[in-house]
Fold each of these.
Amino acid sequence: MRAAMPSFSLQRLFTLPGGAAALLQEQVLHAYAPPLVALGTALTLGLIGWAAGARWPVASAGAAGALTGWIALLPVAAALRAVLAPRAMADFLLLPAVAVVLAGLASPWLRGRAERWLPVALAVLAGWWLAGSAPARPEFWRVWLAIALAAWLLARVVAAQGSAGPGGRVLAAALALWGGLLVAGAPPVWLVAALVAVAAAMAAWPLGGALPPLLLAIVAAAADLAAGRLVRAGLNATDLACLLAPGAAWLMPRMARRFGKRLGRAGTALAVPAAAALMVGAVWLSGRLLHR
């Protein structure tokens, strides 16, 4: 008697043995859920502000998206503890993000000196907060000064006048940071953290908002601190990824002017990935030359 042929099943075809499917699903969710959370939060707030004609939801959309995306990196029960008593380096991103969200909510009522000096105060406080992490404590003052200065310089570059708005400049820098860290072989947690910044900036830009430059600066500083490079001598690909990313914010409006002469508004959109790609290429080439 002939044995019955096993029935064909697509589910059986794509089933991985030994729990590999569950592991793959967990890894995919861990990698893509936080950026999707950031994208959804920023889009929701931005659309609410656009529909209601209110400024504060648009002003805080990028920061709120980044905050919720970084929270999604952690277990729900650990999120509050990570804000107030951080342990891992990625936990240090949360409290500055909370402060920036609150500043965005208050932005419609800020005028004059308060509006000008609040970003500076936030940069100083964020530098102090990250400098208190375990990797930075041996050189607390130097790390504090370096982070605060980097955040202030990036904010100045983004705020420069021009046809390209700040949203596109920050998005170009975020893309450059993510691509540079990818080329440098950074740990997955920092690739996801940078991708959260990309998603938040991408959602805020079309609606007239922007990811606050301070949040991008602290991602770069935290990734560099986690690699142990910001407090040591020498230079490697991770340092270059963090140092060259702001260059995309400077380069993007210049490329937008050139592309815009032939492509119009599409030229501005094309300038964002083009500027980021140039910086990522510079990171890759420099890393090869340094052999690190």
Amino acid sequence: MESQENEENYDDFLEASVLNEMLQIIDQIEINCKDKEGQDLINERIKQYSYAKILCTIFDKDIIILIKSIINLAMAYLKIDYYNQAQEHLLDALKLYENNNDVTENNKEMQENKIKLLINLSKCYLFNNKLETALNICKKSLNLNLSLFNEDHISNADIYYIISKINTRLHNYDESINNLNLIEKLYKNHFGINSEKYAKLMMEKGQVFEINNKLNEAIDSYQNAYLIYKNKIENFNKYEIIIQTGIKLSELYNKINKAKEGYDILNEIDEKYNDKFNSIKDKVVFLRCKIKCCYNMNDYRLLLKENLNLEKILEGTNENQKTLAKTCISIGYIYLDGGKKDKCLEYLNKALKIFRVNGDEKLEKDITEKINNIMNSEENKDEDYYVNEDIIK
């Protein structure tokens, strides 16, 4: 009898030792995951899931351990945009919630995890274009979140954001804006109207307004974001965002026939942040936006100035030779409009040389014909090839 009792005690001790070791391994994996990314993170989460599954299915330990491990694995897949794999694991976790409601329902931490699960599950359905399903899941997560926290809690913002995204995809633009307005109220209270989060939200609103062709509202939103980034540039150090927002504003101003306002913003950026462009390519895109504004303003003095700036940039690289040739053509015809025929021919011949070097026979033939027409004409302008949008694009 005593021998049997000793054996049982030893078995209990052994089981407790194994359980303790496995729990320590799970905890250590959690620590390891902080420095992992991509497939390495997934591999760690798979290990964690395997140990959690053994604990719950063989040793009948708390099901919460298994649910957490499945959610963690799904999140690892989401980080590398493996939506289908993430969806599969999130649905598995959701089934465990439903089958163990007596354990999870009164556990606040698990209810918070369930909210996270539902939000990310809705992202998966959104990715797979199952929009109504995504919206219903997101609304369910919002109701659950509101039952745990009040409507002013910042955690509601993430859910409103996904609901806004889904409504945009459904072309329910007003409803999308309504949800972004709810986020705006939260951000004002929690972060302030000069925060980077608020600026990013303004850009998000600008995108939705633009898609819905409400261009004035889009401009207001982008302008708000631009001013926040400009006034807080030392804090945010986001020069690329300032430049891209300026370009977007110039595009929108051109669409509503206010090219000068667009040019003024780009000119301000050029003067203040000229040394902050990441590449020559970015600078070329920027200058072409300025040129588009000048063209729409019918200001050929500025049009010549910006084309000459673009020529200078392009001459500094062997790339974009076709763009350089087209820029030379634009400059030539601007000079022709100003009565400077010799300067016009100088630039057209420069373009011709580039076309020859690059073996572009069709463009070489076209520009040769234009040069001959100008040389044999008393007129200052060749109406067929005068500066137009095709050239400045």
Amino acid sequence: MLDALTMSLAGQTSGSFMIRLVKWLNPLFEPVVLVTLFILLAMSAACWGIIYYKWRFLKRAHDQSIEFLEVFWGSKRLDAIYQASEQLKKSPISQVFRAGYIELSKLKKTQAEGAGEVMADAMGGIENVKRSLRRTSLSELTTMESLVPFLATTSSAAPFIGLFGTVVGIMKAFVEIRPGTATLEAVGPGISHALIATAVGLFAAIPAVMAYNYFVRRVKVLYNEMDTFSSDFLNIVKRHFLK
């Protein structure tokens, strides 16, 4: 009685639309899984390339920034600091200084020509210097943050892409089950192969999220140093040009 009921339900299920659709799509399942694996491997390779590039980029930016700050606080002439900054172009702080120095040179030239109220010209010039420092800081921040969002995208999307490949692989494994072969030995290999997609997705996502958090912290530190330097530089300019 129970066997007959089971066979009857199986016959009804085998004729359902979803079962027929899955069987019709079965030839596409394997290419879909392979494409998914290729996408995940490509994302992983891109992430490792970005990780290496950004690590070197931010390391040089940090090292040269330390060197520039030593030159800046150890020198008494802005023109000498400007010349030294030409050799430290990887430092975002040196680029902020160069932008401020150029605006300051324009201010000094205006004061030397004696155009208009000296104090008014100085106040307007200081605002120009401040805007230049701010604009350059944002530009350097954009440069430092470039490619980092791809790591966040990979860390968020890769597990779901891998899960999609696993689901498709499991569907293929179950569709290929034949009557009387529904055993662990029959479905085990197909399911284990399908789980590779999830493993590759995690392999791409875990390093990406760790690197993303690391780079975000490094970029934040450098940006704070740029902001602090901008304030110090403005104080020096005001002290010497707004007496």
Amino acid sequence: MQNNEKTLKILLIEIFNGELQWKRQYTDRHGETQEYDVDSSEVVSQLMHSDSDEFDYLTKINPDYQGITVAPVDNYGGEDQGSEYWSVWKFTKDSEEVLVKFEGYYQSHYGTDFQEWNFVKPAQKMVTIYVKE
């Protein structure tokens, strides 16, 4: 199967679970070009933190993943919100669309850690709250 025949889900599995590695460059404050390594684990960690920079860069430099776009859908977590921490993103390629949830946890004395990612779909949940009479 050629890459242009792979479904969006298969391409995302390759990116998020893969052993992909690439180099990024930036210019430091002294005007010198510096280089650093990036891999798949950095992509999923950034997406959990509501940042798509490395994913966007990968889709520009790697022809296998060109045409995949990403948009934030929802997120939760951080200071004063308990240990739960997650972000949901919508990925699109041609007519395919999938939602992915990146989950981790937050601790005030430590920060955040990525735990897992999953394909998800929206579902409604009825919640009962109690208000003053």
